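go over this chain:
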Amino acid sequence: MTETLRLATRGSDLALRQAETVREALSSRRRDVELRQVETRGDQIPDELIHRLGKTGAFVRALDEEVLAGDADLAVHSLKDLPTEDMADLVVAGVPERAPSGDVVVQPDGLGIEELPAGAVVGTGSLRRGAQIRATRPDLTVEPIRGNVDTRLEKLLAPGLQAEHERRLIASGEDSALTAEADEDGDENADDTDDEGTDGDEVDEEFDETVEEWFDSLSDLERDAMERRVETEYDAIVLAEAGLRRSNLFYEVETTRLPREEFVPAAGQGAIAVTASDPDVVEAVRDAVDHPRTRVAVTVERTVLGELNGGCVAPIGVSAMVQGEHVHVRARVLSTDGTEEVADTRDLPIRSHATAAAEFAADLADRGADDLIAVAREEADE
């Protein structure tokens, strides 16, 4: 085993933070770790939804290829991105203790999913989350959204902050810049003060802060959002709680946890996987970072997902939790429009959790999950 371990990671802020937790764990065992940033296929196609990127592993292969080629000793992944198929010459050497695995709705006013008005636009980049939202609130509009965690939050916050900025400029009499910009864009109604938001009560609106004081009070995230142009205005977005926390953005926005009974997380969500091939590296990683309870839980989840063979093409949620001598597992397989589903819960014996998880998946398949997944795959192919 080399003296300094080379750890392959994506270059996103979230990926680097995950890699840093692995480096710190190994450093505590007196292992030096060097981070190697690698661009993946998922990074190269930023405007495509995950389930349209092809086979599972759009964010994984390039990292693991670094390990197989000998250019890195290990790679760090979000476990939910890791394919369930066997990886030739690679093993999951370590699974650190899991972060919160559920989903949250982010809404500027702190509204939960049940409080959103009919027709509200909810953004998600996940096929699973989209189907679950439609099943719970068919009156909402689900729109795709891509980007890193901070990018998605900026897309959500941008319209509201920009509108607030404009209102404050108008109230302060400093709206000449806005009018001039509208004129440059060929807006024939730029000087029409009867337009909504620029007349009557809006002009008379008063604020306790100047525009500059208000802007100075914004967080870095909000200031970045002010500069962002968006094509779709979202009323809320749904994200993984773990991603928000690892990005240090959980307390920057208003969040509401979604009920796990309806919003069953993706297999492996909230967990990190470290892959390696060299036996000595595998042993070092396992000793330093592996969390036994987390590994059992994600093994159950990934076994169910693998047996169902849904990958990223079907809306499948699988969540497991170790409870004494059993593993409580919940699964929910939906049609993409959320109108059909096969769901169940089961307590599996911990001593045979992998075998029992496969049997649970077979039961779900026999009850119609296979049919829903087949339809979803046909839709993805189209």
Summary: The two ends are 47 Å apart (CA to CA). The longest strand covers residues 326-334.
